């Protein structure tokens, strides 16, 4: 499924003082001294996101959600910083305009960026595109990911944005703790995954910018051409291991066809679909990076599934607490459990003694 993300009236629990917003932004951005129209993007389970139509053009506002938040989650300040750092690079991003950390304005911190028109494919594979376009989109996904990993992050002003050494041990520890914080029921596979990953951490590589959520659904594709015009959702970005991004991007090859946002191609005959198989995609990325094929990619795929399951479990918990960005999150229990089960299947395949 693809198209323009649906805009809906602002959800009651996410309403804010639009007049206060306009007053605050009028001295900084064109269009806010006239009436504005605010609507909310449907879907998305992290930071509530809003479309703002003004007389001078369209903007997007990202803010922290209301209510009690998990530790280190919803880091919109980091999103803003990396968008500014990547402006003018080979990585296409929206232009970040202003960060406002004064919660008195609309109740939480927020930032504003330019709206980028284009198509969004809500699944992990572009099944709604013609086969030739699918192939070109996958090629561009590899190109943009390699471009990101080639950015000189120190020269881009991202010193201190993350610790370059020991990324994977810290990530495993972080997401084990996030799972424990989100946990509302026993899930043995999640506990086993955390322990297995802690004892199977791949060696460090030269650190790069790691997006943290690089997938098709976070890319804006040109309205008529099969190329990426913007990479979105930088909330989880840091300085880290490049293969963490690659493993996460490859999750589509390990998910079965399923609901929106989870659809994959596991078990599908890809012949004639225009979708490259996993090895071809990884080979394209590796060639662009000037490196050989990664030897431990399966470990990064397992880590990515564990991390995503932890995130989805946190979303489900927020739904139970009444703080989720999308009311559909109340049904996410099965999603995180299925991810954990699939990740453990991969572990048993690569490590039968586990």
TrEMBL record:
InterPro entries: ACAD10-like, ACAD10_11_N, Aminoglycoside_PTrfase, Kinase-like_dom_sf. The keyword Hydrolase does not apply. CDD domains: ACAD10_11_N-like. Residues 37-259 form the Aminoglycoside phosphotransferase domain. Keywords: Transferase. One of its GO terms (molecular function) is transferase activity. Pfam families: APH (PF01636). Signal peptide: none annotated. This is Phosphotransferase family protein. It comes from Dankookia rubra.
């Amino acid at each position: 499924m693809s198209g323009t993300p649906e805009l809906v009236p602002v959800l009651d629990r996410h309403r804010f003082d639009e007049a206060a917003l306009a007053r605050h932004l009028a001295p900084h951005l064109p269009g806010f001294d006239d009436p504005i129209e605010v609507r909310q993007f449907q879907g998305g389970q992290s930071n509530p996101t809003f479309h703002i139509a003004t007389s001078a053009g369209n903007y997007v506002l990202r803010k922290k959600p209301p209510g009690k938040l998990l530790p280190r989650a919803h880091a919109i300040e980091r999103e803003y910083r990396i968008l500014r750092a990547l402006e003018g690079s080979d990585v296409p991003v929206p232009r970040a305009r202003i960060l406002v950390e004064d919660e008195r304005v609309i109740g939480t911190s927020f930032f504003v960026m330019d709206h980028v028109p284009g198509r969004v494919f809500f699944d992990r594979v572009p099944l709604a595109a013609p086969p030739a376009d699918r192939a070109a989109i996958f090629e561009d996904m590899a190109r943009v990911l390699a471009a990101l990993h080639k950015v000189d992050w120190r020269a881009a002003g991202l010193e201190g944005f993350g610790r370059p050494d020991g990324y994977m041990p810290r990530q495993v520890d972080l997401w084990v703790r996030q799972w424990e914080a989100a946990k509302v029921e026993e899930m043995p596979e999640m506990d086993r995954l955390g322990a297995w990953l802690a004892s199977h951490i791949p060696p460090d590589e030269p650190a790069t910018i790691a997006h943290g959520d690089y997938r098709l659904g976070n890319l804006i594709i040109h309205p008529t051409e099969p190329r990426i015009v913007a990479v979105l959702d930088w909330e989880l970005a840091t300085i880290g291991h490049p293969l963490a991004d690659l493993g996460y991007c490859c999750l589509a090859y390990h998910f079965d066809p399923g609901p929106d946002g989870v659809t994959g191609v596991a078990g599908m005959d890809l012949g004639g679909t225009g979708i490259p198989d996993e090895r071809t995609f990884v080979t394209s990325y590796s060639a662009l990076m000037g490196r050989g094929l990664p030897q431990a990619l399966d470990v990064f795929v397992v880590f990515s599934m564990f991390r995503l399951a932890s995130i989805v479990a946190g979303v489900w918990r927020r739904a139970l607490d009444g703080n989720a960005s999308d009311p559909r999150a109340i049904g996410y229990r099965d999603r995180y459990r299925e991810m954990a089960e699939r990740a453990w299947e991969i572990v048993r395949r690569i490590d039968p003694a586990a």
